[in-house]
Amino acid sequence: MNVPWQAWLCTAAGLAVLICADLMLTRGTRGSSPRCAAVASALWIAAGCAFGGVLWLWQGSAIAGQYFAGYLLEKSLSVDNIFVFVLLFSSLGVPAALQRHVLYLGVLGALILRGLFIAAGGALIDHVSWVLYVFGGLVFAAGIRMFRSGAVADPARNPVLRGLRRVVPVTSEYIGTRLLARVNGRTVVTPLLVALVAIETTDLVFALDSIPAVFGVTRDVFLVFTSNAFAVLGLRALYFLLARSMQRFSYLRQGLAVLLLFIGAKMLISSLVEVPVMVSLAVIVAVIAGAAVASLWRDRAGKPDAAERCPGERVH
């Protein structure tokens, strides 16, 4: 799809307006409440769907289908980030009042880094066509790795954070929302900057899997970027909506692994079999819906009903 620079400019302006509106809606402590998070998450999903509708009217159903497939895939894979963010904030002791600030900065930084990654990936595919098979292999390997992985590794122990602590002094206490501070006449890093670096590096690791996967459903850089943007920008609201109930989605990682295996295989056999975009879209919806329903069914079946509970037992 040949996208004029005016469309890129309008898209960037629209995203900026949505980010400002999100800040207005979630300002103060209310932004972390489940109710506010649900409203903000619903609005981000509505915005993503509305953008897909605009693409449908502008470029037709085929292009819109590619966008929606990329958006749903990236949105589904971004949920896996929440597992790691919960562990990260817990291991670094980030106060609840500061988590929203870290996620806001982290999401904006992730959008910039992903934009650069997408531009580089698109240029590679245009000039070296066989790199798509490399991407397919990476995505397939990521699916296998996700199936085999057990407990999520502690992100606070990643080598980037260890290196940061060795290079610069880090305070032991949070100082409001400040990333840097002056202590005893020298500039030091606050734990909030450590948490932000952890967020960015964690998202970058996820992007190495998810962006090649989106290239598996569309090779258009504009569609890859916009599907990523709308999925990632709604991640902060989704975190506060799902963070307390992530343990209920016990089959989510298996579902995401199946998706990665499907997209990876689709990319590897693309020269032999062309899988229609609508088939990819249907598979994404079916796998994620199936994983969610199975998880909620297992969670419900694992809880004793009212007749089986012991007298005085509380329901959590």
What does this structure look like?
The chain is mostly helical and 316 residues long. It has one domain (20-300). It is 72% helix and 3% strand. It has a two-stranded antiparallel sheet with strand order 1-2. β1 and β2 (186-189) form a beta hairpin. 35% of the residues are buried.
Order of strands across the main sheet? 1-2
Low-confidence stretches: 304-316
Number of domains as seen in the coordinates: 1
Strands, count:
2
Percent in strands: under 5%
Q: Could you tell me how far the N terminus lies from the C terminus, measured between alpha carbons in angstroms?
A: 51 Å
Task: Give a quick rundown of the structure.
The chain is mainly α and 316 residues long. 72% of the residues lie in helices and 3% in strands. The chain has one domain.
Give the helices and strands, then pairings.
Blueprint: H1 5-25, H2 34-59, H3 61-92, H4 96-127, H5 131-148, H6 159-167, E1 180-183, E2 186-189, H7 191-215, H8 221-233, H9 235-242, H10 252-268, H11 277-301
Antiparallel strand pairs: 1-2
Helix pairs in contact: 1-8, 2-3, 2-8, 2-9, 3-7, 3-8, 3-9, 3-10, 3-11, 4-7, 4-8, 5-7, 5-10, 6-7, 10-11
Give the key terms.
disordered C terminus; two-stranded antiparallel ribbon; 72% helix; mainly alpha; 316 residues
